[in-house]
């Protein structure tokens, strides 16, 4: 058996829920994805809530995986957003010292995104907020091709749907940016049906991560285990590939 790791981005970097064969899960926050890789077993399979494999040109609906998974999610499909072009993602890679500079960079990325999409489409604030993390994984997968058989893209709501017998969650996880306790409870109950102990899920998240980040990483770990065992499905099947040969698919 192989170690399974579920990963989500968080304020402090990356939150990872990790389970070795025969052991209880653990959770930790890492400042960088490279640090996460260094700290975990070299053969661990990882499912990450982050877009992997970037388009040169953005079509309506996204790269392909997005259009395939949205119909599965019912009212939760808005959680799957289209990924802009690689040039838009790399339009401004500066560290921002002021909020004004951050918004200016967002505007520049949106202009590049509009010029490299059909129909022309800018970049949402939500998407722009994770550009640095998308680039972080992208750079590692370009530099270290061997990681492409260990690091897989997933998506929490697709994961919850697949774990729930192909039925999407009925309640939102967040409402107007705030955690929805009823939606969190619905997902915790599902995760417990798949082997988690309630005390683990009820613990406070590590410093630098939010409660929903923790829950999403816990779901990602189950998907990593399914990938390792051959039970997971890729959308599309087989995966596409970007111009660097990085696989483009959402796994669940």
From TrEMBL:
InterPro entries: DUF429. It comes from the Bacteria. It holds the Pfam family DUF429. This is DUF429 domain-containing protein.
